[in-house]
Amino acid sequence: MLLVALPAAAMAQVPPASDSGTTVEHVVSDADPTQRYAMFLPPQYDPAACWPLLIVMDPRGRAMVPLARLRPAAARYGYLIVSSYNTLSDGSGEPNVAAVNAILGDVEGLAAVDCTRLYLVGLSGTARMAWEFAFRLEGRVPAVIGFGAGLPWGVPAFRIAVQQLGTPFSYFGGAGQTDYNYHELRALDRTLDEIGIRHSIEFYPGPHDWPPESQFLRAVEWLELDAIRRGLRTDSTALVARLFAQRLSEAESALHDGRGYRALLLYRALREDFEGLHDVGRVPQIVDSLAGAPDVQATEARLEELAGEHQRYRDRLGDFVQTVELSTRPMTQEQAVTHLQIERLQQRAENPADTLDMLAALRMLATAFVHTSFYEPRRYFEERDLHRALLMLEVAQAIRPDEASVCYTLARAYAGLGRKGNAVAALESMAASVRLDPDRLERDPHLTALRDYPAFLAFVARLKRDG
Length: 467
Fold this sequence. Notes:
Blueprint: E1 23-28, E2 36-40, E3 51-57, H1 64-77, E4 80-84, H2 94-107, E5 113-123, H3 125-136, E6 143-147, H4 155-165, E7 170-176, H5 182-195, E8 199-204, H6 213-229, H7 237-256, H8 260-274, H9 283-291, H10 294-326, H11 333-339, H12 342-349, H13 355-382, H14 386-399, H15 404-416, H16 420-431, H17 438-443, H18 454-466
Parallel strand pairs: 3-4, 3-5, 5-6, 6-7, 7-8
Antiparallel strand pairs: 1-2, 2-4
Helix pairs in contact: 1-6, 7-8, 8-9, 10-13, 12-13, 13-14, 13-15, 14-15, 15-16
């Protein structure tokens, strides 16, 4: 169970003020020594004051990846960051509960942390869990930041939760334009509008991943506006005026450049984020005008059409997964690639003349890839069904031939099937793009069959020699 109050651990967990503006990459939790995290203190940090805290949950426990991108925004606006090495996605939620409990246990009671401004930051599965944690920490989490995934429950269950618990926090979310969950976030935007939860959802270039620094800056600035609206931040007139002018300039530039749909999104965000905080002038009228423009309506209609196509492709992928599961006669890689329309999608993804169609194709390819490279092989490895795992991985390789993670998992499948030459070839292919740890290869139980294979021994020896 997530803790909502725990006495603070030793003050030594927080570096002294002289270390402010620096990152401590490895901290062992006093509250739970099995937990580790990285910590950042902003340059203006003073232990005598109270500071908002960003609790970051990477879905693969890579604490420094999101911290490095979030750090410039946190430094600018005076936020502490604690980013866990133990959070995980695509499994039991218990690792995330333990990680957040440890963070709260270490810092929650310190005078330097403003316990009314604890912000949960997640990606993918940890973005979903951030909603649950925020409900449990009612009154202490004014907003959640989530990228690459939406709700932890279906919309009906979410509505019931809101009816029972209210809407104690706001939400800033987003996804990459080629994220396989892109349309889920678009749908969430409408759902939160209907329910009445203050929110902002923005999309940025890239796949299913943490956003770039610039998007994290927008997120933290949105938190600042939300804190002002809630009375959690004072002396804000100059900040609100500066942010309004900055965002207005962006919207005007988009409109001037003929990017009507982009301009609509920016002007709509201006209206929703600044009404009640700043004079928004003619912004509402501009929003209404743009919303009725034929080109904008055509773009919105096209996005809805592509959302429907994406759902139909998910259904096709589901049929493929079920066919592979139930068939007694193995499907070939060629048949699988044809069924999933991989080549046709790749052709669409290489056509920059139609940006919306190109991005839609990339999202469908990403959907097929994540299932054939990760979810389905993982399941089949657990079931020790390496033939079906291999088929899935071969499809993934057809989508992204040089993906290192696919090469490594292929090597494991080949080794388990006794195809030792193929296994070593897959590892050699992987080594061309990433650095391999020879000790990890020797310890990997899935590569046991290779341990006396001359080509594998020579490959490992070469890795050790090359350092």
